[in-house]
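Below: protein 1.
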Amino acid sequence: HYADGRLDDLKTFTSEAYGSEAYTSQAHEHTFASEVVAHSPTQPTPVRLPGEMERFGALLRVHRFCQTAGKSPLTDATNAIRSHAEDHEIAITALRGLMNGTEAETHEWLGHVGADPDLIAQMRRILVSFPTEETCRLTMKSATTMLFVPAATQVEDIEE
């Protein structure tokens, strides 16, 4: 009963936010914002979140990575950089987190970052978009570290 109420709330929210055609339900297939996702009746329905909620989730994950230094997965920072490089708070927090670990952790993390051309491009984008003293210092320090750390052999080596 409680789950049905939440589903109705979600339908109402998506209808108001994205229009009445944004959410339809037919025989265990749901369309949300032009995405079709099939699921089983025992699995919760995957839902694409509105942009503000995705940003907030990324912000929470990147702050957790920054504050727990080595106890959160590296993907908390790297996914935030990939998805939200245009957001100053997320970008700078991710960079702080990457430089916040022990020397061994930082070398391992930056080895993975250096092996991924997309992450390098996003870090360049962060530096160009936010030319502050802190951004310059963090990107230059990470770039210098990457030069002296052997790159990870595969991008897939990043822990999930």
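Below: protein 2.
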Amino acid sequence: MCCYSGCTDCEYREPGGGYRMADQSSARPKWIPCYDQREFLTQGKEHTTKWSSEIFVDTMVVTKEEFVERVINMEFKPPLGGPFLAASAAGIEDESAAATLFDVLAGEKEKLTRHRMGKEMKVLSGGEEGITWAMFSAALGAK
């Protein structure tokens, strides 16, 4: 792992400066991916998003009630880039934010599909591959 101190013999340093990293993984999430699953063939890796595996458990569609219940029961991991909140203090007592997120993603529909969730998240991200904290809070109307 690179310490980013500019060591002259560092295997992660490019000859002209800069850094190359063998693995772009992170111990803490940086964003919410818009895709549900992705394979990185050149690295021999694959990634299934937490939202697709924990919200859409053995199904491709959820109701608002199922969505809210599954979101509030997801394990919290403090993200990079957002306000810090310890996992021990991250319990969701007010379900309104999860319900609002469902409404934003599902629109006027009574159910939300895995495909639609990924598609709508891509819209909310402005076409990016993931939603950052700023994008997420703006989508929910936070200022």
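The mean pLDDT is 83.
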